[in-house]
Design brief:
The complex is a heterodimer of chains A (160) and B (385). Residues 70-92 and 155-160 of chain A have low confidence and may be disordered. Chain A has helices spanning 2-21, 24-39, 48-68, 70-78, 80-88, 90-93, 96-103, 106-117, 122-129, 133-153. In chain A, helix 9 (122-129) packs across helix 10. Chain A is 80% helix and 0% strand. With 385 residues, chain B is of the alpha+beta class. Chain B has helices spanning 8-16, 22-37, 44-52, 80-83, 92-97, 135-143, 294-299, and strands at residues 99-106, 110-119, 123-132, 161-162, 168-169, 173-176, 182-188, 197-206, 214-221, 224-232, 240-245, 254-261, 265-272, 276-280, 286-290, 304-308, 311-315, 323-324, 342-348, 369-374, 377-383. Chain B has a 9-stranded antiparallel β-sheet, with no helix packed on it. The N and C termini of chain B lie far apart (59 Å). At the A-B interface, helix 1, helix 2, helix 3, helix 4 and helix 5 of A face helix 1, helix 2, helix 3, strand 4 and strand 15 of B.
């Protein structure tokens, strides 16, 4: 049972964690912590969709909590992995669009991921993030504008 | 010319490219499998979190599902008020600082009062009390468990609540309004528990208090998971800021410029020289890149001794340090920091003990501060006008 859940949701959890933490080491820490909770019987097993929602919310909350802790902020800011990522990653390895998405604030980045990749509706995202669906709609609209702006700034958007 | 729009397909591909290395995936699975076989032990990460996150307790889902009891309502006497006087106490000096009867609320079953508040803006301590107004309130108090409201090492759990900045918070917590790095926690003062009364201490501390003037207090009532109010956290004790006069070049990575000190905490600010750099995106996103390694950063923490008139020197062993000072938008806030851009050292007293009891230790006599030595450089002080 656990193996099945792990295989099925590892990538999903890694993606949302990475979108918050922006580095592999911290994202993997979060993923591991979420699966520890699953092992400890804290997950909701009332249907697959509910389990997925639980995993996403738990990972998302875990990331937010880590980001707000001063000691963790420093730790993640100062680690060499982080340093390497800043210096060595980008253009070649990450797509321009992903770079642009990562430049968005959390409040825009996460709804974009849940909406465009996970396929949740604005109502569902609202429930997942405890935010009004109308706010999600506004944030998605703003995110699209910002993405266009970033892509233009990076001279990627040349028009056609 | 038609503007290119970000296509859904591009976004999908972008997200699809976020992949952990296969090895790492396997590695974690092995670790978890071992845990599963061992019946669920802590991971190294959790242990580490516990070590660091002492004050950040866990909040379990706590839909205070109370059953209305068919017992006649009981009204409790006003004398109870006196029972809660003087919780945050250690000596006369503290008594002088503590602000009393800060806020009151009731839902007809419970009366919640912010009895006391002590703030130097860096460390803020409040004591709130619940008193039963009727039997339903008394039952709520009997059911109350502090662990239901404590935030854990992992912070937010299923059932936690998001504030307006979309940050998770416990249904019982005190949180500064504005951008800051902080730690916080709650602790019931169990020695004050009776069948009808309950006292809880809430504490938070921040790295840098700039522009923080208010805090949210989230608190539950009998039939509501949480209510929210705003408390002023204006300091109720003297805060002193002194320019450091001397050779400011105390380190190759930063100059020391000034100290902010109260009887509860001090922070030394400076100007960094190649310690980190910033990048601010047009979207509002913010990033900071350290230019020295983590190990190097640990090495360059300052060695600080505070010198007092008529009192022993104080040598600091603990310092949260070396972070940029920022305003509420996340921009470096040199203007509000007398030209400094970096917090180079700070210390909050009572750290670690402050949740354990309601005694407040005023370790510093900030008024008597006469000088500081940083990395062997002695500074005299000049108050800002």
């Amino acid at each position: 049972m656990f193996e099945e859940i792990y295989k099925k949701y590892f990538d999903t959890l890694y993606r949302i964690s990475f979108l918050y933490m922006k580095n592999e080491a911290d994202a993997l820490d979060v993923v591991q912590d979420v699966f520890v909770k699953v092992l400890n019987g804290k997950a909701v097993y009332q249907g697959e969709e509910k389990l997925k929602a639980w995993l996403l919310v738990t990972a998302s909350n875990s990331c937010k909590s880590r980001l707000k802790k001063w000691w963790n902020k420093k730790r993640s800011a100062y680690t060499e992995e982080c340093e390497k990522r800043w210096n060595a990653q980008p253009a070649g390895e990450r797509s321009e669009v992903l770079e642009a998405v990562l430049e968005l604030e959390d409040k825009y980045r996460i709804p974009v991921y849940l909406y465009y990749y996970e396929g949740y509706s604005t109502k569902e995202i609202g429930e997942l993030l405890s935010i009004r669906p109308s706010t999600i709609q506004t944030r998605l609209a703003k995110a699209r504008k910002l993405l266009r702006l970033v892509l233009e700034e990076e001279q990627i958007c040349t028009g056609y | 010319m038609k503007e290119r729009f970000v296509k859904q397909k591009d976004l999908k591909q972008a997200f699809e490219s976020i992949q952990a290395e296969g090895e790492k995936k396997e590695e974690i699975y092995k670790k978890l499998s071992q845990m599963e076989n061992a019946g669920g032990q802590e991971t190294g990460t959790e242990k580490g979190d516990k070590r660091y996150g002492r004050m950040l307790r866990r909040l379990a889902a706590t839909a205070a599902a109370l059953v209305a009891l068919a017992i006649p309502a009981t009204i409790y006497a006003d004398e109870i008020q006196n029972f809660f006087k003087g919780i945050l106490r250690h000596d006369e000096q503290v008594a002088e600082y503590v602000q009393q009867n800060v806020f009151e609320d009731s839902d007809g079953h419970l009366k919640m009062t912010v009895q006391e508040l002590l703030s130097d803006q860096v460390v803020v301590r409040a004591v709130i009390t619940y008193e039963a107004v009727d039997e339903e309130g008394a039952e709520w108090i009997r059911q109350f468990k502090e662990e239901d409201y404590q935030e854990g090492p992992e912070g937010a759990r299923y059932g936690e609540y998001m504030d307006e900045n979309n940050m998770p918070h416990s249904a019982l917590s005190l949180t500064p309004i504005g951008y800051t790095n902080m730690t916080r926690g709650i602790r019931e003062l169990k020695e004050l528990r009776t069948d009808t009364t309950l006292a809880i201490q809430l504490v938070y501390e921040v790295d840098d208090p700039v522009e923080l003037e208010q805090a949210y207090l989230y608190y539950p009532m009998t039939h509501e998971i949480f209510r929210q109010t705003t408390l002023s956290i204006e300091p109720n004790m003297e805060i002193r800021e002194y320019q450091l006069i001397g050779d400011t070049n105390v380190n190759e990575y930063y100059d020391a410029l000034y100290i902010r000190i109260s009887d509860l905490s001090y922070i030394i600010y400076g100007k960094q020289k190649g310690l980190y750099e910033h990048r601010r995106y047009s979207t509002g996103g913010y990033a900071q890149r350290m230019l020295v390694s983590y190990e190097e950063h640990e090495k360059v923490l300052p060695d600080v001794t505070l010198h007092f008139n008529g009192k022993e020197d104080y040598n600091s062993n603990y310092g949260y340090a070396l972070s940029p000072v920022m305003d509420q938008k996340g921009d470096i806030a040199t203007e509000s920091h007398h030209g400094a851009d970096t917090l180079i050292c700070g210390e909050v007293f009572d750290h670690g003990q402050f949740l354990e009891n309601s005694e407040v230790t005023l370790s510093l006599e900030s008024e008597a501060l006469k000088g500081i030595t940083i990395n062997g450089h002695y500074f005299t002080l000049k108050a800002y006008e």
